[in-house]
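Hello support,

Our group uses your service weekly, and this is the first time we've seen a run hang past the timeout. The protein is Chromosome 16 open reading frame 89. I'm not sure whether the cause is the sequence or the server load. Input pasted verbatim:
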Amino acid sequence: MSFPVFLLLIFLFKSDLSKSEADTRSTIISALEKATFFLANKYMDINLDAVSGFSVLQAHLKGALEKWASEHELQSQQARVERLVKKLSSLIEKATHSLGQSDPKYFKEFEPSLAPNFWMLPHSWNQTDSSLAYTMFDSIGCFTEEMSDKCFTYLLGTWKDNGTSCIVTKACRNIMTKFGCSDYSLSHQLFYFMVADMKGCSDRLFLRAQYYKNIFCASMMKINLMIESNGFRFSSRDLFMENIMFCGMSGFSDFYKPSWLETVLTWQKPEEGCFGKPSENSEHPSRVKDQEQLLRRVKRREKVFADGCSSHNTAVAVGVLGGFLYYY
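Update from on-call engineer: The timeout came from a worker crash unrelated to the input. Re-ran successfully.
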Protein backbone atom coordinates (compact mmCIF):
# COMPACT_ATOMS: atom_id res chain seq x y z
CA MET A 1 0.00 0.00 0.00
CA SER A 2 1.43 3.40 -0.95
CA PHE A 3 1.97 5.99 1.75
CA PRO A 4 -0.64 8.53 0.46
CA VAL A 5 -3.32 5.80 0.32
CA PHE A 6 -2.45 4.82 3.87
CA LEU A 7 -2.85 8.43 5.00
CA LEU A 8 -6.19 8.65 3.18
CA LEU A 9 -7.47 5.54 5.01
CA ILE A 10 -6.41 7.03 8.35
CA PHE A 11 -8.22 10.28 7.46
CA LEU A 12 -11.39 8.40 6.49
CA PHE A 13 -11.25 6.30 9.65
CA LYS A 14 -10.88 9.41 11.80
CA SER A 15 -13.73 11.10 9.93
CA ASP A 16 -16.02 8.12 10.57
CA LEU A 17 -14.96 8.10 14.22
CA SER A 18 -15.63 11.83 14.59
CA LYS A 19 -19.04 11.44 12.95
CA SER A 20 -19.86 8.56 15.29
CA GLU A 21 -18.83 10.60 18.34
CA ALA A 22 -20.83 13.59 17.10
CA ASP A 23 -23.92 11.37 16.65
CA THR A 24 -23.45 9.97 20.16
CA ARG A 25 -23.14 13.46 21.64
CA SER A 26 -26.31 14.57 19.83
CA THR A 27 -28.21 11.55 21.15
CA ILE A 28 -27.11 12.30 24.72
CA ILE A 29 -27.98 16.00 24.39
CA SER A 30 -31.46 15.09 23.07
CA ALA A 31 -32.04 12.79 26.06
CA LEU A 32 -30.92 15.55 28.44
CA GLU A 33 -33.23 18.07 26.79
CA LYS A 34 -36.13 15.67 27.44
CA ALA A 35 -35.03 15.19 31.06
CA THR A 36 -34.89 18.97 31.53
CA PHE A 37 -38.46 19.10 30.21
CA PHE A 38 -39.38 16.72 33.07
CA LEU A 39 -37.64 19.02 35.58
CA ALA A 40 -39.54 22.02 34.19
CA ASN A 41 -42.84 20.21 34.84
CA LYS A 42 -41.97 18.77 38.27
CA TYR A 43 -39.50 21.16 39.90
CA MET A 44 -41.96 21.98 42.70
CA ASP A 45 -42.48 18.31 43.59
CA ILE A 46 -39.13 16.51 43.19
CA ASN A 47 -36.90 15.62 46.15
CA LEU A 48 -33.42 16.77 47.09
CA ASP A 49 -31.76 13.80 45.37
CA ALA A 50 -33.27 14.85 42.05
CA VAL A 51 -32.11 18.45 42.42
CA SER A 52 -28.61 17.16 43.31
CA GLY A 53 -28.64 14.95 40.21
CA PHE A 54 -29.49 17.89 37.97
CA SER A 55 -26.76 19.94 39.74
CA VAL A 56 -24.28 17.18 38.85
CA LEU A 57 -25.56 17.33 35.27
CA GLN A 58 -25.06 21.09 35.19
CA ALA A 59 -21.44 20.66 36.34
CA HIS A 60 -20.82 18.09 33.60
CA LEU A 61 -22.35 20.36 30.95
CA LYS A 62 -20.19 23.30 32.01
CA GLY A 63 -17.16 21.02 32.00
CA ALA A 64 -17.99 19.81 28.49
CA LEU A 65 -18.33 23.39 27.23
CA GLU A 66 -14.88 24.23 28.61
CA LYS A 67 -13.35 21.21 26.85
CA TRP A 68 -15.13 22.04 23.58
CA ALA A 69 -14.22 25.74 23.56
CA SER A 70 -11.68 25.37 20.74
CA GLU A 71 -13.63 22.82 18.67
CA HIS A 72 -15.29 24.85 15.91
CA GLU A 73 -17.08 21.84 14.41
CA LEU A 74 -19.05 21.45 17.65
CA GLN A 75 -20.71 24.87 17.49
CA SER A 76 -24.28 23.59 17.01
CA GLN A 77 -23.89 21.15 19.91
CA GLN A 78 -22.29 23.85 22.03
CA ALA A 79 -25.28 26.09 21.43
CA ARG A 80 -27.69 23.35 22.55
CA VAL A 81 -25.66 22.68 25.70
CA GLU A 82 -25.41 26.39 26.50
CA ARG A 83 -29.22 26.64 26.29
CA LEU A 84 -29.50 23.62 28.60
CA VAL A 85 -27.15 25.16 31.16
CA LYS A 86 -29.12 28.41 31.15
CA LYS A 87 -32.44 26.59 31.54
CA LEU A 88 -31.09 24.32 34.28
CA SER A 89 -29.75 27.29 36.26
CA SER A 90 -33.23 28.79 36.44
CA LEU A 91 -35.00 25.49 37.19
CA ILE A 92 -32.50 24.38 39.87
CA GLU A 93 -32.90 27.75 41.59
CA LYS A 94 -36.70 27.35 41.62
CA ALA A 95 -36.52 23.72 42.76
CA THR A 96 -34.05 24.64 45.54
CA HIS A 97 -36.41 27.33 46.83
CA SER A 98 -39.28 24.85 46.81
CA LEU A 99 -37.21 22.25 48.71
CA GLY A 100 -36.36 24.77 51.40
CA GLN A 101 -40.06 25.11 52.11
CA SER A 102 -41.23 21.50 51.73
CA ASP A 103 -38.41 19.68 53.60
CA PRO A 104 -36.46 22.37 55.49
CA LYS A 105 -34.46 20.14 57.88
CA TYR A 106 -33.15 17.73 55.23
CA PHE A 107 -32.61 20.64 52.83
CA LYS A 108 -30.50 22.52 55.36
CA GLU A 109 -28.33 19.45 56.00
CA PHE A 110 -27.47 18.98 52.32
CA GLU A 111 -27.81 22.52 50.98
CA PRO A 112 -24.03 22.87 50.29
CA SER A 113 -24.26 20.08 47.68
CA LEU A 114 -26.60 22.30 45.63
CA ALA A 115 -24.10 25.15 45.37
CA PRO A 116 -23.14 25.86 41.71
CA ASN A 117 -19.42 25.09 42.12
CA PHE A 118 -19.68 22.22 44.63
CA TRP A 119 -19.16 19.31 42.22
CA MET A 120 -15.65 18.50 41.00
CA LEU A 121 -14.97 16.66 37.73
CA PRO A 122 -11.95 14.50 36.83
CA HIS A 123 -9.22 15.89 34.57
CA SER A 124 -7.34 12.60 34.24
CA TRP A 125 -8.60 9.06 33.90
CA ASN A 126 -7.91 5.68 35.47
CA GLN A 127 -9.19 2.15 34.88
CA THR A 128 -10.45 -0.13 37.63
CA ASP A 129 -8.25 -3.05 38.69
CA SER A 130 -10.44 -6.16 38.97
CA SER A 131 -7.95 -7.79 41.35
CA LEU A 132 -8.92 -5.19 43.99
CA ALA A 133 -12.64 -6.10 43.95
CA TYR A 134 -14.09 -7.89 46.96
CA THR A 135 -14.29 -11.65 46.57
CA MET A 136 -17.40 -11.64 48.80
CA PHE A 137 -19.93 -8.96 49.64
CA ASP A 138 -21.72 -8.39 52.94
CA SER A 139 -25.26 -9.66 52.39
CA ILE A 140 -26.68 -7.18 54.93
CA GLY A 141 -26.36 -3.41 54.62
CA CYS A 142 -23.21 -2.19 56.39
CA PHE A 143 -24.96 0.83 57.90
CA THR A 144 -28.27 2.65 57.88
CA GLU A 145 -29.09 5.67 55.79
CA GLU A 146 -29.46 7.74 58.97
CA MET A 147 -25.87 6.88 59.96
CA SER A 148 -24.65 7.75 56.47
CA ASP A 149 -26.49 11.09 56.46
CA LYS A 150 -25.01 12.00 59.85
CA CYS A 151 -21.47 11.36 58.58
CA PHE A 152 -22.11 13.59 55.55
CA THR A 153 -23.39 16.44 57.74
CA TYR A 154 -20.12 16.25 59.74
CA LEU A 155 -18.17 16.72 56.50
CA LEU A 156 -20.46 19.45 55.18
CA GLY A 157 -20.55 21.32 58.51
CA THR A 158 -24.36 21.19 58.66
CA TRP A 159 -24.65 18.94 61.75
CA LYS A 160 -25.56 22.10 63.68
CA ASP A 161 -25.93 25.82 62.97
CA ASN A 162 -22.53 27.25 62.02
CA GLY A 163 -21.02 23.82 62.52
CA THR A 164 -17.38 23.03 61.77
CA SER A 165 -16.91 21.08 58.54
CA CYS A 166 -14.63 18.11 57.76
CA ILE A 167 -15.21 16.39 61.12
CA VAL A 168 -14.40 12.66 61.03
CA THR A 169 -15.84 10.78 64.00
CA LYS A 170 -14.61 7.35 65.01
CA ALA A 171 -17.98 5.85 64.05
CA CYS A 172 -17.90 7.47 60.60
CA ARG A 173 -14.30 6.40 60.04
CA ASN A 174 -15.25 2.81 60.86
CA ILE A 175 -18.34 2.53 58.66
CA MET A 176 -16.96 4.48 55.71
CA THR A 177 -13.81 2.33 55.48
CA LYS A 178 -15.40 -1.05 56.23
CA PHE A 179 -14.54 -3.56 53.50
CA GLY A 180 -17.04 -5.94 51.94
CA CYS A 181 -19.99 -3.54 51.79
CA SER A 182 -22.33 -3.78 48.82
CA ASP A 183 -25.10 -1.90 47.00
CA TYR A 184 -25.92 1.57 48.34
CA SER A 185 -23.65 1.20 51.40
CA LEU A 186 -20.71 0.80 49.02
CA SER A 187 -21.65 3.72 46.76
CA HIS A 188 -22.17 5.95 49.83
CA GLN A 189 -18.69 5.01 51.09
CA LEU A 190 -17.23 6.23 47.81
CA PHE A 191 -19.40 9.36 47.92
CA TYR A 192 -18.08 10.10 51.42
CA PHE A 193 -14.53 10.37 50.04
CA MET A 194 -15.79 12.39 47.06
CA VAL A 195 -17.45 14.92 49.38
CA ALA A 196 -14.26 15.15 51.43
CA ASP A 197 -12.40 16.03 48.21
CA MET A 198 -14.95 18.67 47.27
CA LYS A 199 -14.78 20.24 50.73
CA GLY A 200 -10.97 20.10 50.76
CA CYS A 201 -10.91 18.10 54.00
CA SER A 202 -7.42 17.39 55.34
CA ASP A 203 -8.02 14.66 57.93
CA ARG A 204 -5.36 11.91 57.82
CA LEU A 205 -8.02 9.50 56.55
CA PHE A 206 -8.28 11.38 53.26
CA LEU A 207 -4.57 11.03 52.51
CA ARG A 208 -5.56 7.47 51.54
CA ALA A 209 -8.60 8.54 49.53
CA GLN A 210 -7.33 7.13 46.22
CA TYR A 211 -6.55 3.79 47.88
CA TYR A 212 -10.16 3.46 49.00
CA LYS A 213 -11.57 4.76 45.72
CA ASN A 214 -9.59 2.12 43.81
CA ILE A 215 -11.04 -0.66 45.97
CA PHE A 216 -14.59 0.71 46.05
CA CYS A 217 -14.83 1.28 42.28
CA ALA A 218 -13.27 -2.08 41.43
CA SER A 219 -15.99 -3.65 43.58
CA MET A 220 -18.70 -1.42 42.07
CA MET A 221 -17.55 -2.47 38.60
CA LYS A 222 -17.90 -6.11 39.68
CA ILE A 223 -21.46 -5.39 40.85
CA ASN A 224 -22.33 -3.60 37.60
CA LEU A 225 -21.03 -6.50 35.51
CA MET A 226 -23.21 -8.85 37.60
CA ILE A 227 -26.22 -6.59 37.04
CA GLU A 228 -25.48 -6.65 33.30
CA SER A 229 -25.15 -10.45 33.24
CA ASN A 230 -28.51 -10.72 35.03
CA GLY A 231 -30.22 -8.75 32.27
CA PHE A 232 -30.48 -5.34 33.99
CA ARG A 233 -33.40 -6.25 36.28
CA PHE A 234 -35.42 -3.14 37.08
CA SER A 235 -34.65 -3.33 40.82
CA SER A 236 -30.91 -3.08 40.02
CA ARG A 237 -30.99 -0.24 37.49
CA ASP A 238 -30.90 2.60 40.00
CA LEU A 239 -27.83 1.16 41.74
CA PHE A 240 -26.22 0.40 38.36
CA MET A 241 -26.53 4.05 37.33
CA GLU A 242 -25.43 5.39 40.73
CA ASN A 243 -22.25 3.32 40.45
CA ILE A 244 -21.52 4.74 36.99
CA MET A 245 -22.17 8.31 38.14
CA PHE A 246 -19.95 8.18 41.24
CA CYS A 247 -17.08 6.12 39.78
CA GLY A 248 -17.15 8.15 36.56
CA MET A 249 -16.84 11.34 38.63
CA SER A 250 -13.97 9.67 40.49
CA GLY A 251 -12.09 9.32 37.20
CA PHE A 252 -12.69 5.67 36.28
CA SER A 253 -13.31 5.80 32.54
CA ASP A 254 -14.14 2.11 32.12
CA PHE A 255 -17.57 2.85 33.60
CA TYR A 256 -18.29 4.86 30.42
CA LYS A 257 -18.87 1.81 28.24
CA PRO A 258 -20.72 2.63 24.97
CA SER A 259 -22.98 -0.41 25.46
CA TRP A 260 -23.96 0.85 28.92
CA LEU A 261 -24.79 4.26 27.48
CA GLU A 262 -27.04 2.64 24.88
CA THR A 263 -28.76 0.62 27.59
CA VAL A 264 -29.37 3.59 29.91
CA LEU A 265 -30.83 5.61 27.02
CA THR A 266 -33.47 2.89 26.46
CA TRP A 267 -34.72 3.39 30.05
CA GLN A 268 -35.83 6.97 29.50
CA LYS A 269 -39.58 7.44 29.23
CA PRO A 270 -39.94 9.10 25.79
CA GLU A 271 -42.86 11.42 26.55
CA GLU A 272 -42.17 12.37 30.16
CA GLY A 273 -38.37 12.59 29.75
CA CYS A 274 -37.84 11.00 33.17
CA PHE A 275 -36.53 7.61 34.30
CA GLY A 276 -38.49 5.22 36.46
CA LYS A 277 -41.00 2.42 36.37
CA PRO A 278 -41.23 0.95 32.85
CA SER A 279 -44.63 0.96 31.20
CA GLU A 280 -46.48 -2.31 31.75
CA ASN A 281 -46.65 -3.15 28.07
CA SER A 282 -42.86 -2.98 27.74
CA GLU A 283 -41.92 -5.05 30.76
CA HIS A 284 -42.72 -8.50 32.07
CA PRO A 285 -45.46 -8.46 34.78
CA SER A 286 -43.10 -10.04 37.32
CA ARG A 287 -41.10 -6.83 37.30
CA VAL A 288 -43.80 -5.21 39.48
CA LYS A 289 -42.06 -6.90 42.44
CA ASP A 290 -38.82 -5.29 41.30
CA GLN A 291 -40.45 -1.87 41.67
CA GLU A 292 -41.50 -2.65 45.25
CA GLN A 293 -38.01 -3.90 46.06
CA LEU A 294 -36.41 -0.77 44.61
CA LEU A 295 -38.57 1.51 46.74
CA ARG A 296 -37.37 -0.28 49.86
CA ARG A 297 -33.73 0.12 48.85
CA VAL A 298 -33.31 3.71 47.68
CA LYS A 299 -33.67 6.86 49.72
CA ARG A 300 -36.50 7.03 52.24
CA ARG A 301 -37.54 10.32 50.68
CA GLU A 302 -37.81 8.72 47.23
CA LYS A 303 -40.69 10.13 45.23
CA VAL A 304 -42.39 8.14 42.49
CA PHE A 305 -45.06 10.00 40.51
CA ALA A 306 -48.31 8.61 39.14
CA ASP A 307 -46.76 8.36 35.65
CA GLY A 308 -44.00 6.08 37.02
CA CYS A 309 -41.32 8.80 37.04
CA SER A 310 -38.81 8.34 39.87
CA SER A 311 -36.94 11.27 41.42
CA HIS A 312 -33.91 9.17 42.39
CA ASN A 313 -33.86 7.18 39.14
CA THR A 314 -33.96 10.39 37.11
CA ALA A 315 -31.29 12.03 39.29
CA VAL A 316 -28.71 9.29 38.77
CA ALA A 317 -29.63 8.91 35.08
CA VAL A 318 -28.96 12.57 34.23
CA GLY A 319 -25.75 12.38 36.27
CA VAL A 320 -24.69 9.38 34.18
CA LEU A 321 -25.61 10.95 30.84
CA GLY A 322 -23.84 14.19 31.76
CA GLY A 323 -20.78 12.12 32.64
CA PHE A 324 -20.81 10.37 29.28
CA LEU A 325 -21.09 13.71 27.49
CA TYR A 326 -18.20 15.16 29.50
CA TYR A 327 -16.07 12.07 28.83
CA TYR A 328 -16.77 12.12 25.09
